[in-house]
Amino acid sequence: MENNKKYLKNLGSMIQNIISDLKRTTFHISNELNIDEELIKNAINGELEFKEVKTIIDKIYNHYPIPFKDIVIINLNRYVI
Asked: Is residue 81 situated within a structural domain?
């Protein structure tokens, strides 16, 4: 269970880094992707289930020009994004 929380927090940090690299705020990302801002903040804080986080990451990846290498997280016990 602790590994799962740590993994979700790592994904949240990755989302925050991508948002920062795009020079956006959670407010801007939520408007541009039509996602509730609280949902994005919860993902950043590691408070969502993996499926929800993956949906947010997929939307970010499909909307913005982000190299795929920037969103790959290697974890042998999980689905690799």
From this structure: no
> Under 8 Å CB-to-CB from 73, ≥6 apart: which residues?
7, 10, 11, 14, 80, 81
Number of domains composing the chain: 1
Whole-angstrom distance, CA of residue 28 vs CA of residue 49: 23
34: left (phi over 0), alpha (psi -120 to 50) or beta: left
pLDDT per residue over 50-78, tens digit each? 999 989 988 998 898 887 666 555 444 44
Q: Can you tell me whether residue 76 is helix, strand or coil?
A: coil
pLDDT number for residue 3: 62
Task: Establish if 80 belongs to a structural domain.
Answer: no
